[in-house]
Write a structure and sequence with these properties.
Layout: E1 3-8, E2 23-26, H1 31-35, H2 37-43, H3 47-66, H4 73-86, H5 88-98, E3 102-108, H6 112-131, E4 152-153, E5 156-157
Antiparallel strand pairs: 1-2, 1-3, 4-5
Helix pairs in contact: 3-4
């Protein structure tokens, strides 16, 4: 199942239409960023990232040309595109943070519709508990493992146990 990073827009919590502006970023490889790197950056208005990408490409390719390794230039460009495809969601998340957005959480779901439903169900239930004045219940503590077991954990026997 894919994971979605949820970004909350800046501004007042109770502003009208604010819920419609939440952004769900799938944490997976972006084929469009891999295939159309600079165009993908332009399409998402990642201007600073586009400048860094073009500057890095120019520097790396000019160094390869100077040292006479121009034959590997295409492989280097493909590796840069692959890296952009791997880090596409992280790049968008960093851009949103720079613009004042904040991380609202992570949702694991099969598709975007289910991710939105899970997130907003939990989000509004939590908000309803807060406004009702009832204290929000903390998560239950994890059970501690017992000090005495069956004699073997993995491949190692417990201290003092028989063979």
């Amino acid at each position: 199942m894919p994971a979605y990073a949820v970004m909350e827009p800046p501004g007042r919590i109770d502003a009208p239409g604010r819920v419609d502006r939440f952004v769900f970023l799938p944490e997976k490889f972006s084929l469009s960023a891999f295939m159309f790197g600079p165009l993908w950056l332009i399409g998402h208005r990642l201007w600073l990232e586009l400048l860094v990408y073009l500057a890095a490409a120019a520097v790396i390719l000019s160094i390869l040309w100077v040292i006479g390794a121009g034959s590997v230039a295409m492989a280097v460009v493909i590796l840069m595109q692959y890296l952009l495809g791997l880090e596409a969601a992280s790049i968008r998340r960093l851009m949103l943070r720079r613009r004042g957005w904040r991380d609202a959480g992570v949702v694991i779901a099969d598709d975007l519709d289910l991710a939105e439903r899970r997130f907003f169900d939990d989000h509004f239930a939590h908000r309803a508990r807060e406004t009702a004045g009832a204290p929000v219940a903390p998560l239950p503590p994890l059970p501690l493992p017992s000090s005495r077991g069956s004699g073997v954990t993995g491949l190692f026997p417990e201290p003092g146990g028989g063979r």
